[in-house]
Amino acid sequence: MTEAVPMADSPSAVEQADAVVVGARCAGSATAATLARAGRRVVALDSARFPSDTLSTHLLWPAGVAELSRLDALEAVTELGAPRLTKAYAAGSGHAIASEFPQVDGIDYTLCVRRSGLDHAVLRTARAAGADIREKCRVTELVWDGERCTGVRYTDSDGRPAEIRAALVIGADGRRSTVAKLAGALDPYESEPSGRNCYFAYWRDASTEWRDTAAQWRVGTDLGTAFPCDDGLLLSLVQPPAESGKLRPGDAERRYAAALDRIPPLRERLRGCEQVGRVRSATDIVSYFRRSSGPGWALPGDAGHFKDPVTAQGIRDALHYGRLLAEAVAPVLDDPVRLDRAVAAWERRRVRECREIYHWTNRLARGTDMSPLEVELYRAATGDLDLAAITTGIFSRTRRPAELYTPARMARLTAGALWHHRGDPRPVLADLAHEINATAHEFHTSCTTLRGTPPPVPPSSTGTATA
């Protein structure tokens, strides 16, 4: 897959490839598989040995499942045994919304697959496509020729130093991306701290009635979910309001149990279930956009863009934009000018396509009580199938949040909320003013920092050039 050439100042060899991918989970393997199928020589490096777990809520809406199909990985993922979730259920403030999922490329179901199996299946797909996947390899440096990235230096699985030169270095190495740091792009140009923390655990599922349902409950300021997954397990996640300070031993377990107690219908869903393993946590969550392209480098997946897990969009976007990046650059890897244009256009596309769901996700991550307008939305959706379908479609990326908040629909929701608060309309009016201000802020952000042309990385941030 790669060609070695002698390196004058080293007893080892410098390899040549068309592209090197740092990180071989969802984004990295999707990129590597697509490049390999296009006939390109691609090496993917990962510090883990697979199968390997990682912190993730790992729900795939139909759009995410469709990406697995496009990657030819769906059969391998299906063999892991996660049930098809064909029903969506959301409840809040005494109102419950039940709906089916929209079809994406003929797929009308959701999957919840633990990352150890999911990532390994996608990695095996990339390897079968012809990508050279190397595990237990840690990248230590980027190689530069002036301001252009031309490769990586890394330690291999035996701890020996090695180097690969490539037309494109793809950093698919997550939120703490080494490539982003070494490229001077680690600090986001747009970010929004979450109002929620995240705690989750697996349970041995005792229910047969709910094994086909992805369920979410909101009670007060708390949000909780129950997603049946592979091996007869259930992923139950809670997102209470964020608390400051580092977690001490036992805090995650206590906060998780306390949140479950505050969400009685989720506790009822878990009745008869046995918790398996420890509670896992994610705190100090920040959604962001980083500069994700430059001469000779690009950042798909969480390395370049991350959204709060409250809407479970990360895996779909990792697969989707990893594939799109590979499709964009595969024909032009031999032409630096066209390559730079392709990665820049890919980045602009991701920003344009993700900014609306980014704003919507941040709204759901506020960590506050359901507002009067949110309660009215739930109330209306219980009897309005189209409204319920729009809501479910937003998660699946087949509908846009703008379709939910049209002027006519907002007027009806406001009128309904005022009727139900006719004794004291002030909370509704305050909520309406808040929503107007939030919408104006989102519009301004979309027209400025998220207009689709991210600011350049300062030239000095890439460090000393080494040919």
From TrEMBL:
It holds the Pfam family FAD_binding_3. GO terms for molecular function: FAD binding. Residues 446-467 are annotated as: Disordered. Residues 17-334 form the FAD-binding domain. It comes from the Bacteria. SUPFAM superfamilies: FAD/NAD(P)-binding domain. PANTHER family: CONDITIONED MEDIUM FACTOR RECEPTOR 1, GERANYLGERANYL DIPHOSPHATE REDUCTASE. This is FAD-dependent oxidoreductase. It comes from Nocardia jinanensis. The lineage of its organism: Bacteria, Bacillati, Actinomycetota, Actinomycetes, Mycobacteriales.
